[in-house]
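Posting for a labmate who doesn't have an account.
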Amino acid sequence: MIYNSKDNFDLKSGLKLIEKLDFSRPCNSNGEQKAMELLRYELDKLSITSVYHYFDDWWIKPVNAFLYVVDREIPVKPAVPLSYLKNNGKWMGIENINFDLSGSLYFNKEVDCSYENGIVISKSLDKSLQLSNAKGQILTFKEDSTFIPYIFAKEKFIPSVYIDNKHLPFLKKNIGSTCKLSWESQQVTRTFKNLVATIKGNRENEKCIVIGAHLDSYPGTVGASDNASGVSILIEIAKWFYNNPPEKTVHLVFFTGEELDRRGSIHYVKDYFYNSTKPDLFINVDSGVLQGSGSVYIRYTSNENSKSIKKNLSTDLEIVEKATTHADVEAFQKENIPTFWACANSPRGPHLPTDTVEEIDKKNYKKIGDITLKTTIFAANVLFQEH
């Protein structure tokens, strides 16, 4: 065994950081920026330098979004971010994110009512989520981001929009009228950013290692398991190296956009390692700690470095040599950078607001934290000695 017994993940400290990140952090949002500032503060306390890695990519915004009732044109706001609808709607069979639909105007009064040809007014979040058979939906309650993951989790996507309550009296007068709901989409370019922290090794000329976790959460969720847990493990690793400087330089990367299309890791690899010296290893930390998750196991892609890690990792966990077609590891694997990921299968597919700190499986969290910390220590020190 190459590790000291004291080289263990600090569960209590990690949970405290997850609690601090108990807010929604979608890609390129104010919440994500707030989280990055919090992490920079934590890194500053350790005298670890962090910088933003900026890049440009596409974004979708709504244009010409209106509800037409009788002779009135009423502005509306799509209830789901169109960028996520474009990317995540594919598995729901949504090929076109522009909508133009007509139907009779109804109030959402009964759960079992048939609204197949209707555009339905929902006055509460509960009512809106019970609806399953309407053409479209008008939401008159205050904007609630938790609507987003629930509507994406339904078998049928119902185009839904928010409307100013001042129009409600007019709509009430015209119940039963034929109305039209439409919006168009416009692709624009926006600037996004990852947060990159560097811990310089004693042998700076040697190849580095990279350990990453995505910081963004799915819209409408706080993402305690997915992936505040991974972020907290990176910070705990930073604390260890603050007291125990590594031989190799270690880059800690907090990625944006994993929940959208993994754009953060894709641009990071492209900008840092395309046609240049590649790191010895990428270690991914992403979820697997929600109650009901499966057993922790290890996924890796093979080369001499990862084989050496496997050999020295004393564990009875299942170890799978397999490339990954999802998550941030994929961008590294496409550049033939070996990867390592201690993970567990989520108990459910869709991202939901139930992913909270109260639902963390502490046993899995501790196990993934321990394995990731010890693997990083080994990769940053012992691998150097073996080469």
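Reply:
Got it, the structure tokens are right above this. The two ends are 19 Å apart (CA to CA).
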